[in-house]
Write a structure and sequence with these properties.
With 325 residues, the protein is mainly alpha-helical. The protein has a domain at 172-279. It has 12 helices and no strands. Helix 7 crosses helix 12 (263-324) and helix 10 packs antiparallel against helix 11 (244-259).
């Protein structure tokens, strides 16, 4: 059984090699271009803040009935509205998960709901075409059915996996930049700045070092000015980040807003605790390193070492026995 038996009719092994080489060249060129492309975090943040400002202004002073009568809907929005997916009980939870991943617009929720419905059909149709139409893998009827069901399930969970990975990555970046942000907040609080001015100033200073933290502080500063309840803006920050350190900072800011307690000393304690936590996490990773290196050492280091040390002796013994017999 050769390779060409698995290929569609009219496609040879040489054509497959040429296609793979072309794809590899395209991916390599795109990776180099993406690495050399300059991305200005300030411009990206300014655009995001403008979008968020318009959304907040529309949410405070806009008319919901006017939004519902908007006739410039896209195809995805029409599908979501017809199926009434936005009215489901899980819509708010999904919106919070999208916000933790950095996707806060309403269009992001519409795209997620559309992909949640469309991807199972797309993956299932692709699997049907490959296993039944092209007879890929030469599976029996049970195997084809199982492959199709696996493709449908994968399409159903693919958006959730993407959101979870993006949220985990973003939370890790926010956790790393949180101690520096708290130190800057201590300096601003000791200088006599208000909470709104403190968050905006820290957001401006953290554009390059921690753009994710800068985005969260900028949005919180805008919500403090737009929302009727300032406590709600701080709660939204804790919900979007979903980190113990951020929740502690939000509790401290809430107490300072409500009772007028001194803010600088509390933030300094939180900053020290956050730095200690980051150091403990680094020490934990360093302590796990010997255990993680055990398996690669056994698989990739010890066999070549045994070959180098015992190979000459084995060859000499084989030569001696060859001479005897």
């Amino acid at each position: 059984m050769n390779l060409e038996s698995f290929l569609p009719a009219g496609l040879s092994a040489e054509d497959l090699i040429v296609a793979m080489a072309a794809l590899t060249a395209f991916v390599s060129a795109f990776a180099v271009w993406s690495a050399l492309l300059y991305r200005d975090p300030a411009a990206r943040r300014a655009e995001l803040m403008a979008t968020q400002r318009e959304a907040l202004r529309a949410g405070v002073s806009g008319s919901r009935r006017r939004k519902d009568r908007d006739h410039s809907m896209t195809f995805m929005r029409q599908v979501v509205d017809r199926l009434e997916l936005m009215k489901s009980s899980q819509a708010e939870k999904i919106a919070n998960n999208l916000a933790r991943a950095g996707w806060r617009t309403k269009d992001a929720l519409v795209r997620y709901l559309f992909m949640k419905v469309a991807l199972p059909f797309a993956f299932g149709g692709m699997a049907l075409f490959m296993v039944y139409g092209l007879n890929l893998g030469e599976l029996d009827s049970t195997g084809k059915l199982i492959a199709t069901l696996v493709a449908v399930i994968l399409g159903a969970y693919f958006p959730d996996i993407m959101i979870k990975n993006a949220a985990t990555k973003r939370q890790g970046l926010i956790r790393k930049s949180l101690p520096d942000a708290l130190d800057l907040m201590v300096i601003c609080a000791e200088a006599g700045l208000s909470l709104d001015a403190t968050l905006m100033r820290v957001a401006d200073e953290m554009i390059s070092a921690g753009p994710e933290m800068s985005d969260e502080f900028s949005i919180t500063s805008l919500e403090l000015g737009f929302l009727p309840e300032r406590q709600k803006a701080l709660e939204n920050l804790a919900t979007r980040c979903n980190l113990p350190g951020v929740r502690g900072m939000v509790n401290t800011l809430s107490q300072a807003e409500r009772y007028g307690t001194p803010l600088a000393q509390s933030l300094r304690v939180l900053s020290q605790e956050s730095r200690d936590e980051r150091m403990m996490r680094a020490e934990e990773k360093a302590a796990r390193l010997p255990a993680l290196l055990t398996v690669p050492m056994i698989l990739f280091i010890l066999p070549p070492l045994f070959i180098v040390l015992l190979g000459p002796a084995v060859l000499q013994v084989m030569d001696n026995f060859t001479g005897v017999f």
